[in-house]
Design a protein that fits this description.
Layout (H helix, E strand, L loop, with lengths): L1 H18 L6 H18 L14 H40 L3 H14 L4 H13 L3 H14 L4 H13 L3 H14 L4 H18 L10 H5 L2 H7 L1
Helix pairs in contact: 1-2, 3-4, 4-5, 5-6, 5-7, 6-7, 7-8, 7-9, 8-9
């Protein structure tokens, strides 16, 4: 009953404020006074019962309630999107196990559309793209995952794999080093870092695959011609 009395007290206070405004005719003001008296009589309260006063004015309580109700559909919708996105991620993971990488990409893409701030979905799609040899797309997804979660070691590791696949060994080394900074005991990162470092050394070596030269210039070089004559 105390909650009801507090509500009625707030209503009476509101009606008294309204009755003192110049916007009502004398008859209307009299009607408000009658309404106030009826409420006070029925609920046995009056404005001297200040202990019944709510912490907020009746108008403020009403507006807060309206605002809260307006937000509920959006909150529910967002919650539903998060749940559905997680289900799509699980479907994508199952497709990865079945080596159905195209379907996995589709599931992760739909998950991202529902929940674009989840780094895991981008990172998982990067793995699927790599399996399809879409390395540049994989790199973009890893970058998006890292932008959302800069401490996501798996995103750095998968970006290292994609960078290695497109012969960007120096950048791959940097990615693996960052992955190891975040997850120092990960043997996969350690192994892949060594591979990328070796590839980088091979590229820098005079006998490595990174050495390129102009065969036409060599053949037309007088010193070369005299040497083979």
């Amino acid at each position: 009953m105390s909650s009801v009395k507090r509500l009625v007290y707030a209503v009476i206070h509101f009606l008294r404020e309204q009755s003192q405004m110049d916007t009502f005719t004398p008859d209307e003001q009299e009607s408000l006074e009658v309404a106030i008296q009826c409420l006070e009589t029925v609920f046995k309260i009056n404005l001297e019962d200040t202990h019944l006063a709510p912490p907020q004015h009746l108008i403020e309580m009403f507006m807060n309630s309206i605002h809260k109700n307006d937000m509920l559909p959006l909150s529910c919708s967002l919650s539903e999107n998060v749940v559905k996105a997680d289900q799509l991620k699980d479907e994508g993971n199952n497709h990865m196990k079945e080596e159905n990488y195209g379907a996995a990409v589709d599931c992760y893409t739909r998950a991202i559309q529902l929940d674009p701030n989840n780094a895991v979905y981008y990172c998982n799609r990067a793995a699927a793209h790599s399996k399809l040899s879409n390395y540049r797309e994989a790199i973009k997804d890893c970058e998006n995952a890292i932008a959302i979660d800069p401490k996501y070691s798996k995103a750095y590791g998968r970006m290292g794999l994609a960078l290695t696949s497109v012969n960007k060994y120096e950048e791959a080394v940097t990615s693996y080093q960052k992955a190891l900074d975040l997850d120092p005991e990960n043997d996969s990162y350690k192994s892949n870092l060594k591979i990328a470092e070796q590839k980088l050394r091979d590229m820098s070596s005079p006998t490595g695959t990174g050495l390129s030269f102009d065969m036409a210039s060599l053949i037309n070089n007088p010193a070369f011609i005299s040497m083979v004559s």
